[in-house]
């Protein structure tokens, strides 16, 4: 009896899982339904940013929801060209650089960018580089962080979490991820970047604390 109940639950779980996967993939692979943040002031998002995480959304077999640190800290520099509707995004990391160009086609939707032309830079010369042709959705843009989703129908679908500093409060990251879960945007891989500086900073704090405590103990012993 128990066994039957268990099998039923298992089947139900698997079915539920399979159907939800199906809806989420098909809805977003064509870039539909990706929400934009309203009232973006494009001038406020220009300048230098750091890449904190790259979240993959494609439900390929090669992505299994794994999370890992990548020992690199890419910076992104966004500039507006003359007309206020042409954007350049310059991505720079140890391995090389790449420059994207985008156009804002509708001034009333400044958070929706369409790629224009090919990317160039040294990263593009790497054989595994796939030229990006598609749209970028500014899904969140506040003073200290921003979320961009890159979508190319049936080809690429990923988000980049950017921050003005090389670190971002874990609570902000959690809220970004929760929001994606709410919108049924699957996260099938998490690449965490710019973590070295944070962990070494944390290590420094620990070392200093440990040193101070040791010193304090020694001092108290001496002055008993
Ligand atoms: C890409 O090409 C433009 C125009 O030729 C050039 O100004 C820019 O520096 C190049 N960017 C990179 C990253 O090589």
UniProtKB/TrEMBL annotation:
<protein>
    <recommendedName>
        <fullName>Lipocalin/cytosolic fatty-acid binding domain-containing protein</fullName>
    </recommendedName>
</protein>
<dbReference type="InterPro" id="IPR012674">
    <property type="entry name" value="Calycin"/>
</dbReference>
<feature type="signal peptide">
    <location>
        <begin position="1"/>
        <end position="20"/>
    </location>
</feature>
<keyword id="KW-0732">Signal</keyword>
């Amino acid at each position: 009896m128990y066994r039957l109940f268990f099998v039923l639950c298992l089947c139900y779980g698997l079915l539920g899982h399979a159907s939800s996967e199906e809806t989420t993939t098909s809805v977003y692979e064509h870039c539909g339904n990706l929400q934009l943040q309203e009232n973006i002031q494009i001038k406020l998002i220009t300048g230098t940013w750091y890449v904190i995480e790259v979240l993959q959304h494609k439900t390929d077999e090669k992505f299994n929801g794994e999370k890992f640190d990548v020992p690199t800290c890419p910076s992104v520099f966004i500039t507006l060209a003359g007309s206020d509707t042409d954007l350049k995004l310059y991505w720079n990391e140890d391995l090389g650089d790449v420059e994207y160009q985008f156009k804002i086609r509708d001034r009333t939707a400044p958070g929706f960018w369409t790629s224009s032309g090919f990317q160039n830079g040294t990263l593009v010369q790497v054989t595994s580089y796939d030229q990006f042709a598609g749209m970028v959705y500014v899904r969140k843009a506040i003073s200290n962080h921003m979320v961009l989703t890159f979508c190319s129908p049936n080809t690429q679908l990923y988000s980049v979490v950017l921050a003005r500093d090389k670190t971002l409060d874990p609570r902000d990251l959690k809220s970004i991820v929760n929001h994606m879960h709410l919108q049924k945007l699957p996260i099938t891989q998490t690449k965490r970047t710019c973590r070295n500086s944070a962990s070494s900073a944390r290590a420094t704090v620990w070392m200093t604390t440990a040193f101070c405590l040791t010193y304090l103990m020694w001092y108290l012993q001496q002055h008993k």
